[in-house]
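ABC transporter ATP-binding protein
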Amino acid sequence: MTTPVLDLKSVAFAYPDGHQALFGVDLQVQRGERVAVLGPNGAGKTTLVLHLNGILRPGAGTVSVSGLPVVRENLAEIRRRVGIVFQDPDDQLFMGTVREDVAFGPRNLGVRGAELDRQVMAALDLVGMADFVDRPPHHLSFGQRRRVAVATVLVMEPEIIVLDEPSSNLDPASRRELADILTGLDVTLMMVTHDLPYALQLCPRAIVLSDGIVAAEGSTFDILTDDALMKAHRLELPFGFDPHVC
């Protein structure tokens, strides 16, 4: 039996103020899967994401990536293996040019010169932003900045990419362009989203996180067409959207 690329066992977490955000989450993701994480506000989705590369660590239970435990001594390697693309690209882009932002991670690993430039350009090519390599990020559109944020993760050649609300604040064309990029990546993908049609388009499998537990998991289509499940966990499809005709 193959080792899951991501394995959470009985993960529980409480914040310092006593708020219990996760109550024993069990989740396995196999290499190459694309999984949507669905759920209402306050379900624990962001808390879960922050456990995947050690930004938060569980009060109980374990998290591992390809068999490597997410513990302090492994954090450098874990953060190379698991790349997180945050909801706001301005939380991720802080250098003077696109080139410097994308180069930041590999440069910290000691990559220099022609090899650094090759890695930067390869990542930007994947997201269609190579022509903007010397532009300041704040001169780009929101959708372009989100693609550069994805490139800052891709340049590290991660095993898993986790995206937090990737379609938020995107116009329809940018939303479609990002979907095309994501479907073309040969990487395990997890996507936290309230955009249920986007989840159906990009992720064959989904989990529903509700009140800090995995309330349901299965095919995204089956979850989105289970009216009782959707109502119980405050999930609603856009008006007029029918998963059966997608």
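thats it. Residues 6-245 form a domain with the Rossmann fold fold (CATH 3.40.50.300). Strands lie at 6-14, 20-29, 34-38, 60-65, 68-69, 82-85, 160-164, 188-192, 205-210, 213-219. bye
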